[in-house]
Amino acid sequence: MNIETIDVNDSIGIVSEVLCGHDKRKGVLVSTLHKIQADNGYLPEDVLRSLSKKLAISLAEIYSVASFYKQFHFSPRGKKIVRVCKGTACHVRGAAKVETALIDRFHIKAGETTPDLKLTLETVGCVGCCGLAPVVTINEDVMGTIGPKKIKHLITVIEEEGVAHGEN
Ligand code: FES
């Protein structure tokens, strides 16, 4: 195409059309990522590859968008997601002992998941229940004033979760 024959208005129209289509696809992307994560518990790479082809958005761009949001995960998560609060009140009242007990028992560090997918261990800042320190959250539930007895109970709950659902 000869550069002198390009109609500027046509070009702007084409660019606008392309951008508009791209924006629409990007708009669909985040809600689709939510659906994929709801179905799988995380964003499997093969599913993201298919999505990349379907939406004509590069895989790199999909990862870039997904990694911007903290709620998206790229590897399988445990049935129990235990977050040890590391806020000041919990720190002062023994959060480290709780975390150490879980690390010692399940042999994973914060940010990791056990191979049997029973537990994902994470740490979190103050969860707003400082009066109950030390605190952990287990999925959506809060467990406070955790001493040795409650740690033992928590470990039992995590260990038995798979058995209770016949998934062991
Ligand atoms: S510091 Fe743990 S709940 Fe506030």
Care to give the gist of this entry?
By secondary structure, the protein is an alpha+beta fold.
Outline the structure in words.
52% of the residues lie in helices and 12% in strands. By secondary structure, it is α+β, with helices and mostly antiparallel strands. It folds into 2 domains: 3-68, no CATH class; 80-164, Glutaredoxin, CATH 3.40.30. The protein binds FE2/S2 (inorganic) cluster.
Weakly predicted, low-confidence segments: 163-168
Bound molecules: FE2/S2 (inorganic) cluster
CATH fold-level topology of the largest domain: Glutaredoxin
CATH superfamily caption of the largest domain:
Glutaredoxin
Helix content percent band: 40-55%
SS element count, helices:
6
The succession of helices and strands, N to C, reads HHHEHHEEEEH
By CATH, the architecture of the largest domain is named: 3-Layer(aba) Sandwich
Please state the CA-atom Rg, rounded to the nearest Å: 23 Å
Which sheet architecture does the biggest sheet show? 5 strands, mixed
Structural class: alpha+beta
**Strands side by side in the biggest sheet:** 2-3-1-4-5
The total domain count is 2
Separation of the first and last Cα atoms: 65 Å
- The total strand number stands at 5
Overall pLDDT:
87
Beta-sheet strand percentage?
A: 5-15%
C-alpha geometry: elongated
